[in-house]
Structure prediction request, 118 residues.
Amino acid sequence: MQTRWIVSLLFFAAVLSYCSSPKVAVKAAEPVQPAITYSKDIAPIMQARCTPCHFPEQGKKKFLDTYAATRDNIDDIINRVELPQSDPKFMPFKNKKEPLSDSLIMVLKQWKELNMPE
Ligand code: HEC
Prediction:
């Protein structure tokens, strides 16, 4: 009789701890727009669109392969990807890589506004 009582108590405790587990709490506190970070969002864009020219090994132009380099050149980067594609200063250079869509440019701008989290 007592064993049954202990078993149901354990079951109750398990249900209780599941319901109050941090998983649920984290979900409720999650921001609507997850923060943009260099490693999660920006580095993949730079790798996809600015290689090989701005990355070591093959690149001969200013390296834009690190967090610090991207942060320090962000104004120049945004400025150039926003130029008309016919502008000689437009990047990616001579459209050799696919130009950035408006939404990708927006990601760069929002990252800058967030003070460029790493
Ligand atoms: C096909 C090669 C190539 C690709 C791809 C490319 N660039 Fe460039 N980039 C160049 C060349 C060549 C120059 C130098 C000519 C100039 O300044 O316009 C340059 C210059 C720059 C500069 C100025 C650097 C300085 O010395 O002040 C920036 C900033 C830049 N690129 C950003 C980018 C970004 C951001 C991307 C990706 C979206 C990109 N580039 C993709 C070839 C490339």
Observations:
- Residues 49-50, 53-54, 61-62, 64, 73, 76-77, 80-81, 89, 91-93, 96-97, 100 surround heme C (CB under 6 Å).
- The mean pLDDT is 87.
- The two ends are 59 Å apart (CA to CA).
